[in-house]
Amino acid sequence: MSNPVEIRPALPPEIARRRTFAIISHPDAGKTTLTEKFLLYGGAIQLAGQVRAKGEARRTRSDFMQMEKDRGISVSASAMSFDYDSHRFNLVDTPGHSDFSEDTYRTLTAVDAAIMVIDGAKGVESQTRKLFEVCRLRDLPILTFCNKMDREARDTFEIIDEIQENLAIDVTPASWPIGMGRDFLGCYDLLGDRLELMDRADRNRVAESIKLDGLADPRLADHIPAAQLAQLREEVEMARELMPAFDHKSLLEGHLTPIWFGSAINSFGVRELMNGIANYGPPPQPQRANRQVLPEEKAVTGFVFKVQANMDPKHRDRVAFVRMASGHFTRGMKLLHVRSKKQMAVTNPVLFLAADRELADEAWAGDIIGIPNHGQLRIGDALTEGEALRFTGIPSFAPELLRNCRAGDPMKAKHLDKALMQFAEEGAAKVFKPMLGAGFIVGVVGALQFEVLASRIELEYGLPVRFEGSQFTSARWVSGEKAEVEKFVAANKGHIATDNDGDIVYLTRLQWDIDRIARDWPGVKLTATKEMMV
Questions:
Q1: % residues pLDDT > 70 (the chain)
Q2: Which of 124, 173, 238, 440 is deepest in the core (most CB within 10 A)?
Q3: What is the distance, to the nearest Å, from the Cα of residue 205 to the centroid of all Cα atoms in its chain?
Q4: What is the rounded distance in angstroms from the CA atom of residue 192 to the CA atom of residue 534?
């Protein structure tokens, strides 16, 4: 792939200073803690809370759902905007839990780069591998942070080898750790020739940074014991011989990832990583639609990549997360909602700052804004100044688990209809209305999603629900010539349902069902993904 940054004209300064990125990792690698420290250094919060705070201690600021606060996990993507140095960071914290990978997949359509967080003891884990593959499909530049170096960790060369072998990407060290576990002193910054020393006494304090004249500088001996200093010099010499040098072009093309080492909980290595994003991360990139949309275009365009209901239970609101693809948006602008072909006055757009939000007077290409609405906006929707754009590549996946959903109180069945439709439009679950019989079948990627749904329906709608076993195990979207599809539906009524968009779905019990359709109905196509676009 050619590098789009090189061949395009210079971006307007306000767009060029933006960095829009996601943080991805396996659960418990420290992603949410890292996000907290980003907000702390960006001046967005005054005190970094603990992920699993006790009692009345501060909760993690990027987790707003009750279940996230109770369990100390992220199950929903959240967006945060803040200034760092001369740059505007738009950071998207994604769910680490594999049961919520679809939310993460959609989020990755709205960013220009990703930070991959790896646990120093565990290395590349299964969810990291899956998320990396998604980044690879989108040619996203990746910066890597190896966390928890203040605990017993794997050998540095071993970690780098594992990333290279498992993920088939070149790795170049941006920093090099000095010791590990109890003996971890800090890192040598290879890109800036600085010694970074960790302060174990104050977790929120920025590390001491000493500018040096290379690894031969005699001042190193004032800060590092002789044995560790000899090891550092030997390892860095080996690393420089064995590994590729840092190459900005290779990073932007997605072929090479620089790796920083640190300890997010001790605020160590975070600032160097942030500088890495500011200095080497890509500015806003062209977005895929029925044509390529360039960020420097004058006309305002954007697309909805996420919808979150009841972020603020007091307001019973529903917020569409919109990635601005081009132009300079100002509050009050009228934009065309392409799907409905109606003009929409955007009078109260918001910017997110962890759990807080503020009115956005303006936004530029690369920014992520929230638009409160009452159900008009759905995932995949385009907003433009008049052009009928269709943004592509925002997927919806077939669920892997299906359950029948029943209201605890049969008198409140209508309320359940409304709640389930809202969660379907939000992308939190698939909701299918069978052609025969009453009720709904709810489909999810992972079992934890049923818990989250039941909890949210009860908290947000005062409606206890139960999920019961279904005879069906998966679902496929149906496509083909209209007459053929109608014939197919009439012959398979017991397996047919519609999703919340009204699209026809075939519910399966066994792989045999899918094989039978392929054999008996060659004019009908069953697909496990649906492109969510207008």
A1: 86
A2: 173
A3: 28
A4: 47
More confident residue, 79 or 86: 86
335 contacts 383 by C-beta, under 8 angstroms: yes
Most confident of 42-46, 168-172, 326-330, 375-379: 326-330
Q: Amino acid identity of 321?
A: F
b/e burial code for range 238-247 (CB count within 10 A of at least 16 → b): ebeeebeebe
The helix (H) or strand (E) run that includes residue 67 is helix 66-71
Cβ pair 308, 426 in contact under 8 A = yes
Q: Is 491 exposed, middle or buried (0-12, 13-18, 19+ CB in 10 A)?
A: exposed
The per-residue pLDDT for range 21-71, each reduced to its tens digit, is: 998 887 777 888 898 888 888 876 554 443 333 333 334 444 444 544 454
Q: Which helix (H) or strand (E) holds 519?
A: helix 511-520
Place of tokens 């605020």: 267
> CA–CA separation, 324 vs 303, rounded Å?
7
Please, are residues 329 and 361 in contact by the beta-carbon 8 Å criterion? no
Whole-angstrom distance, CA of residue 219 vs CA of residue 210? 9
**pLDDT of res. 53:** 33
Answer whether residue 436 shows pLDDT above 60: yes
pLDDT digits (tens, 9 = 90+) for 235-267: 999 999 999 999 999 999 999 999 999 999 998
Alpha-carbon Rg for the chain in angstroms: 25
CA gap 233, 134 in Å, rounded: 37
Phi and psi at 195, nearest 5°, equal: -100, 125
Token digits for 152? 């017993």
Residue 313 has what DSSP assignment? T
| Residues in the chain, overall count | 534
| Residue 8 CB contacts under 8 Å (≥ 6 apart), including other chains | 286, 294, 296
Residue with tokens 């993904």: 529
Full set of structural domains in the chain with CATH = 18-69+114-280 (3.40.50.300), 287-384 (3.40.50.300), 395-531 (3.30.70.3280)
Asked if 106 and 392 count as a contact pair (C-beta separation under 8 A), the reply is no
CA–CA separation, 420 and 66 (whole Å): 19
Pairing, β 18-25 against β 113-119? parallel
pLDDT tens-digit readout, 152-176: 888 999 999 999 988 889 999 999 9
DSSP 8-state code for residue 208? E
More confident residue, 162 or 209: 162
187 touches 269 (CB < 8 A): yes
The answer to whether 25 and 127 have CB atoms below 8 angstroms apart is yes
Question: What CA–CA distance (Å, rounded) separates 406 from 419?
Answer: 12
Residue 457: CB atoms within 10 Å: 22
Both structure tokens of 178: 């000095």
